[in-house]
Amino acid sequence: MKKLLFPLLVVLIFGGASILLLPPSQAQSGPAVCDVASGAVCIDPATIEMEDPNDPDTCGTPELPCPLGLSVGTNALVNDPNDSGKPQNEPYISMNPGDPNHLVAGANDFFQGIGGDPTCGHYRSPDGGLTWPVSESGALPLPGGFPRASDPGLAFSPDPVIGGERRVYYSCVAFNLIDVSPTNGTVFMVWSDDGGITFPVANLRIIAQGGSSTFNDKPFIAADQSNSAHRGNVYVSWTRIVLGGAAIQVKRSTDNGDTWSAPITLSTDAYNQGSVPFVGQDGTVYVAWARLRSTEPFKTNRILISRSTDGGQTWSPQPVIVADNIFGLPNNPRGQTQLVNTKFRVNSFPTAAVDPTRSLPSGELHLAWGAYRSATNTNADIFVTRSTNQGGTWTTPVRLSAQYDQFFPWLSVSPSGSLDLVYYSRTNTTKARFNLMWRRSTDGGQTFSAETQVNDGGKIKAAQFNGEFIGDYIGSVSGPVTIHPVWMDTRRLKPGTQKFQQDIWSTQVTP
What we know:
By secondary structure, the protein is an all-beta fold. Helix content is 0%, strand content 41%.
């Protein structure tokens, strides 16, 4: 496997940026992009981990299917089945607010990229995730001069914009490579006016321009679905990585994504990552993120949140601490300790959702993340907390204990207020295998149902990228009746081999 040879090093002065590129021979400190858990792939995708013949699945074959809960439907392949064994990972999914059967998903897609490079693939289901027609999938256009992209995020506009269709917004980060080190990370977004079937290059907008010494990373996007004066606003938050710092920034659009405001910096800590924007019932917009400790190789130790009550024009003078002294999961596999008996990186970035039925008019806010139980770095669990006062204060996090490691949670809320949580859960601590699990809360996140397995194809393996990269997140969305998770799965074999490949799968969960 190729090694990371070219760290991205710059200097940041918060409030205004002063940047300086240092060649590797002169570098003394500061993070490489991959060291702060960039979604840009820093590992050679051609390197495949062989299946261990001494560790067979006990289920997942046609003769012995894996037992599932009665509420879980048949799994569906999202990406092109004829993808030549190329990987897909980091899925995201969004639901049309006017039609719960209309779903649009995105993922890092190495098959649809040019020459095997990663790009942001898009996929559409007209029937609630039962099928994902290849004819309605494709790759986003990229900003000029960029061959690669990653980190998909999606959102629907609340109202029709063009020709009776609600607009589909898709955010990503474009980048170049030097060896396998990502450089010049540039956040962009593209919209679709035909329900997510096409994303024309004319609809592409640059959100944050990168450079030789600046990498803008991990963008997520949200659209205001409230009935407030800010209904229809679109927000993108991301991490601006430079030497000695990684700041959270946010922009807004008030004209359906056509033009964007100047960026606003929300953080003042040295290293931050994994921001997620979301909007309350009253139009208050929030951004939550993780603060990282550079001394513990960039593990999360605090979850923070900032809010805007004027449609993204101004933000909290100081972010609110949601949770402190977190024992973050390790996110750097190169020479660092991972979950025991694994090589793939994980993280403790937050996921967020708003309950539209509680704590009105703002709605009840929920955050979740994965973390160790203690400083001994044993047994990772999912932690959930909630706020009933627009994020001003937060409850003591509830730990959802299970037998082995849990990570990569994703939250969504149904229109009736049920809180749905999906996440990966390891099958044991002796092998690098895991399943996708679902839990539901009907009491505002105070208690959750028992785990229900969602994937029906056998235990998921860290198959490609030398077993070191499975993506940095998964996705899910809750409708009036069903929940629609999307995740990375490795049940299929690369054509002509006995090596497993990464794909995106989905299903319908009906409680």
